[in-house]
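Quick question: what would this complex look like in 3D?
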Amino acid sequence: MKHHKRKRYKVISVVSLIMFFVIWQIYAVLNAKMGWINEAFLPAPTEVLVTFQKFFEEGTLFDHIGISMIRILKGFFVGSIVGVVVGYIMAKLPVFESILQPVINILGAIPPYAFMPLLIIWFGVGEFAKIVMIVLATFIPVLASTIQGVKSIDPLHIRSARTLGCNELQLFHHVIVKTSLPYIMAGMKTSISLCFSALVVAEMIGSDTGLGFIIVDGRNWFKVANMFMAMTSIAILQTVFQTILTMIERKLFKWKKEGLSSAIE
Amino acid sequence: MLEVKGIRKSFASSEVQVLKDITFTIETGEFVCLLGKSGCGKSTLLDLLAGYTKPDGGELILNGKEIKGPGIDRGLVFQEHALYPWYTVYQNISFGPKIQKKANYMELADEYLDMIGMKKYKDYYPDSLSGGMKQRVGIARALAAEPDVLLMDEPFSALDPSTRVKLRDDLVEIWKKTTKTIIFVTHSVPEAVYLADRVIAMKDGTIQFNEKINIERKRDMNDPRFVDYVNRIEAFISNRKKKEEKLVVTND
C-alpha cells in the first residue's frame, strides 16, 4: 500500500517536470504569434536545444562544461578535505574550537561570493582565485557537519571498543569515522549547491571560459538563448552531482535505511 | 579470581565518598550480583572494575594482575546495548575477536550467535531488532571476545517485563555453558536473588550484605526461601524499616 502510494507520487513528479517544459514551449509558440513580449527575452525550450547543438557543433560545449566541472571538483574536494580535517581537530580539541569558532562565525556571516573581487586582487584572474572561491563555499558546511558528527559519537561505543581490544587507529576507523561520515556526507550535499553558486560568481567576474562566462557573455551580446543553455547545463550538472552523492550515501549507509525499514517489534 | 581490596572513591565535584573501603573477592566462574539503589556506588564500582576510572585508594586484582585500565580480560554489557549500528549482528559479534586478530574469529562468532539463538538474524542491522534481541547480541559480542569476566551494567532494566524475565533465564543458561565469571549490577532485589550465586548488596558506599543464595536453580520467585532472601536484603538496603517504626509509634 505504502509502496504503491510512493510510486504514484513519483509519477506525478515526473509529469509535473514534463508539463513545466510543455507549458513553457506553448507559451513561446503563442508569444511568437501574438507578440506579447520580445521573443528574444524568453526563448522556447526547443531553441535552447538548438543552442546546445550549435555549441556542440562548434566544439565549445564540452570545453566550457569541462572547465567548470574541473573547477568545481578541485574546489569541492579541497574544501571538503580542509573542512573535515579542521572540523575533526576542533571537535577533538576544545582549545582549538574556542580559538577558531569565533573567527569562523565572523567569516561565515559574510556570503562567500563577497570575497570574489578581493580574491581577484590578491590572486589575479587565474584559476587559483576561482578555486579558492569554491573552497570557501564548501568549507563552512562541511566543517560544521564534521564537528557535529564527531561530537555525536556515543561514549559507550568508545568504551565498548576499548574493552573489545581496539587500539587508537582501530577506534578511529571503526567508531569515529563510522559515526561522523553520515554527517560529513550531509554537509557535502549542502555545500554542493553553494559550490555551484560560487562557480557561477567566480566565472561571471573575470573569466573567459566556463558556464558562468557564457551567462555574462550572453548578457553583453544579448544572446538570451545562450544564457538559458548555460543555466540548463548548471541545473543538469548539479542534479548529476547530487544524485552521485545520494547514491554513495545509500551504499555507505545501508545500515541506516535497512535498519529502520525492516524493524522487528 | 577477582580481588577487591579496600577500594575508596570520591568525585572531585562532591565531598561525598561514593565508595568507602570496599573489600570482597569473587571466585572464577561465580555469578555475583552487585545490588543497590541508585547512588549506592554500584555503578561506580563497575566502572572501576572495567578500568574506565581509577580508585582513590585500594587495589583491584584480577587473576593476580592489577587492573589499570580497560582490557580484553573484562567484557562489558551495557544498559543501552551499545551495539554498532553500522555493523550487522554478525559483524558486531565478531568485532572483538577480529580486532584482536584471532584466527578463529568466525567460529567464535558463529558459536555465540548460535548460543543466543539468533542465527536467523545474522545479517540484520541492530536498529531493526527488538530491545531484547539487541541485548542478547550485546552479550554475545562481549563473550565472543573471550573475556575472563563479564561485567553487566543493569543490562535488562530498559526492557519490558516479559522480555526481562525471558532474558534472565537465557543468561543463566549462557553462564552455565560458558562457565564465565559474571558480575551483574542491578537495582532489583528479586532479579539479584533470581540470578546470582551470591548477592553483594550496597548502601551509601558500603557493603551491607554479602551472602550466597542457597536455592537450587531454576528458582521460583514464590518459594518461601526466595521471599525470605528478598525481604532480608530489602531491609539491608532500604530505609523503609525506620519509617514503619515511626508509623507504629504514631498509631499508639
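Answer marked as accepted. The interface with chain A takes residues 50-52, 70-72, 74-76, 78, 80, 82, 84-88, 95-96, 99-100, 124-130, 133, 141-142, 145, 147 of chain B (CB under 8 Å).
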